[in-house]
Amino acid sequence: MQDPGRRWAKLLALLSALLLVAAACGGSDEDVADDTDATVAAEQEKDEESFDEKAEAQQEGEDEATAQQKELVASDDPVRGGHVVISGPSDIGSLDPIGSSSFNTQYRIAHVYQRLFGFETGPDIGYTQVVLKPELATEWEISEDNLTYTFKLREGVKWHDVEPVNGRDFNSGDVKATFEAILSEGHQSNLLERVESIDTPDDLTVVLNLSAPFAPLLNNMASHFMWILPVEAFEEGYDRAATVIGTGPFILTEREVDVATKYEANPNYWDVGFDGDPLPYIDSFEQVVINDTQQVIAAFQAGEIHVMTNGIPVELLEQLKEDFPEAFYGEWIDAGMGQIGVNMDREPFNDIKVRQAISLAIDREGMGKAIRGGGTIPTNVAPALSDFALPEAERNDLLQYDPEAAIALLAEAGFPDGLEASLIATDRYGALYTAQTEWVVEDLKAVGINVELELLDYATYFGSRWPDVEYDLQFGPQTPFLEADEWLRGQMGTGAGRNWYNISDPELDALLTEQLGIVDADARAEKIQEIQRYALENVMNPIPIWTYPTRWAYSPDFANFFRHASYGFNGLESTWLEPTS
Amino acid sequence: MTAVQEPTEIEPDKEPLTITMEDIEQTVWARFVTSFRHFVKSQPLGVISGAVILLLLVAAILAPLLATQDPSEIGRTSQLDSPSFSHFFGTDELGRDIYSRVLYGSQISLIVATSTVVVSTILGTALGAVSGYFEGKVDMVLQRLVDAVMSIPVLILALFIVALLGSSVTNVVIALAVIYTPRFSRIARGEMLRVKNADYVTAAEALGSKPWLVIRRHGIPNIVAPIIILASLTFGQAIVAEAALSFLGVGAPITEPSWGQMLSRGREYTRVAWWVVVFPGVALSLGVLAFNLLGDALRDHLDPKLVR
């Protein structure tokens, strides 16, 4: 016999479960009516807002963000000490700047290594604005024929006091060794293209001899892929993926992949702060990996995180702003973009019609509004590089959403009943990117491209499948390159370092080479726009999808930080923590 | 002299007693009906649970008819809408109809649970019966294997297997079958050890029946009751395990509307849209609760000696 108490307990459990359902279904009639009305009204409002207005609003948002950042300078009186915690959604194994182009690698080494030039940041400098800031170089000189670049290096810079470099002086040999390694084995070798030889007439002078004029070279020196390593990194062959020895403001002290990377202030850093003492102001910082939205929001609200770089859904961000109004919330039009990569070596994706159909199938604006709460349609150069990007109206015109036309094009290509494809992506870019991926998959299905989604771990996705071009279709964000040449030639030039699509178009190659030699800025910008038009019409790969607003949040005590699109927390050495009341 | 009583002749109008297969079937059916009636009378909770399971089954089978829209159809302007007449359970972050997704989610849950239970019941019972009947070295080897598998925590082993094979519904079933088979084998073995000394088994062996026949005809039919109970309980556990794997992102692919995945993705939005997690959560809880209660009821019913 069953104990009657036990039976009652079971009955009660079942009843409460049923009650829960009933409550959920029926209890909210009134709320439903109200919410629906509200939603309809909101939708109408959304629909009425034209795309241009939206872009304008974003521009305003960007200005607002800059204004907000100004508020971050609580005083000109820096406070020394303290530990800063920065959160992000993912990590990567390798910290080798020659071997890995991942943003995760660059963000983790950006404060340890330095470049010849960095980017200025400040209250009056825009998120993607390129103002070169001398780092390891102090002066440069370009010969009249544009074939010789001479860099004077900074005096008195010392490497971190870590084996086997042991704090020796930085010199021109380090620059030469790094550049030679980049030229021979670096993923970023295109940034130094046309550099024929490197001379080091003395310890503090480096001369680059070019085979032909190379317009982007100076900007390339500030690229977040151009970190200078000590000569020992190549000669003595220590493991660059694990050991990071630089000249930067922070020394890497501890690292556990996928958990945290910790840094301490470099006591011998060459730059000084407002107070005349060496930077950085803070004692230490760490980058922690939190891939759970609720967790990261809770940690930020609890004051455990100073900079939250995780992309969180707009709805949750709005809620967070209400719950934690003291914090700073910045929004910028991202310098990168989401793209669909197409493997040109596989049929039928080598057919331009199929690629055009894919482009026409994607409801970019719908996706951007729904998932990102804004953004803009990009072409092959990020819209944030306003000198080179095509005007917005033209971009919208070139990349329309027209599923009917997509179906017709597929039929013309010989696929009236649609086709099968697999698409690789990773969920390590966060929940929003995963949602965008699902959106892309559904849009493709709607025109008959039956996509099987392969959601890979980041290392497989970025470490092999994408770079090795082992896929039909690929979807994900591209690096926010700050030089148009990287966007175009880097990705689309035959055999280029980031041409992970097997693109080979001789006519395009000729155009790409041509722009390299155009030293006049306006003429080059015009050529770059022409290349984008040509690429969309004749190559349509990688297919630009969406540039979204990027949002970071800062804790109320985090002061004097001005975000820049270049990878890393540019200017972190000049930030400080205001005492909390 | 007493008259020798003549042996009584069999009356010509009386046929000898013969039992046909039909009679047996009738008896079995009659026994089943009686047993079922008794179950209905004595186990009201079991009946309610059975009804809930039936409802789930109907929902799963008729999902294409009952759903108001394609479960993966994106709502271009209806993200996170609250429940309404057009979306009974509201919509998720991509504007997909949660009601339709919960319906289709029941398909995944039930397919995984059913396949897992069928595979592990058949495999586990066969292994356990063989192990228990033969004993000796066979038993030794099989049971150590069972020990090994059972010593690893369920979810960790499942994660390991799915990570190894890749995430898909089929691989989840394989992983769960590997995990649950030993439990069936353990029970079947124990029961077989009990049954193999029964008179009818000895009789069958004495008549020269081959071991396989003895196991099949006399062994398994007599150890089936505890296995049915375990199967019913395993159903619930398999549903939870599938949901857990999907929640962790290694279960059903993200394009499939599985309950666990809906909970995992929806969790992010709980603060602004409760319906995104409540409905799949309730469906999951109801399903698991129903299977567990049915299992309990079956145990009480099939094992009258059990007094607790």
The portion of residues assigned to helices of chain B is 55-70%
Helix/strand/pairing category of chain B = mainly alpha
Helix/strand order of chain B: HHHHHHHHHHHH
Give the overall shape of chain B: globular
Overall pLDDT of chain B, averaged?
87
Biggest interface, and residues per chain? A-B, 46 and 49 residues
Q: What structural class results from the helix and strand content of chain A?
A: alpha+beta
Straight-line distance between termini of chain A: 66 Å
Question: Given the structure, what is the number of helices of chain B?
Answer: 12
Tell the overall outline of chain A.
Answer: globular
DSSP strand content of chain B: under 5%
- Would you tell me the overall average pLDDT of chain A? 86
Return residue spans of chain A where pLDDT drops below 50 for at least 5 consecutive residues: 1-5, 11-71
Total DSSP E strands of chain B: 0
Q: State the helix count of chain A.
A: 18
What is the chains' assembly state? heterodimer
Distance between the termini of chain B: 67 Å
Beta-strand content estimate of chain A: 15-25%
Please summarize what this structure is:
Chain A is α+β, with helices and mostly antiparallel strands. Chain A has helices at residues 4-26, 29-48, 51-72, 103-109, 172-185, 217-221, 232-235, 293-301, 314-323, 352-361, 364-372, 392-398, 403-412, 431-446, 458-465, 484-492, 506-516, 521-538, and strands spanning 83-88, 117-119, 132-134, 137-142, 148-153, 195-202, 205-210, 250-256, 260-265, 284-289, 307-308, 328-333, 337-342, 419-426, 449-456, 473-478, 543-546, 549-554, 558-559, 576-577. Chain A has a seven-stranded mixed sheet with strand order 8-9-10-1-11-18-12.
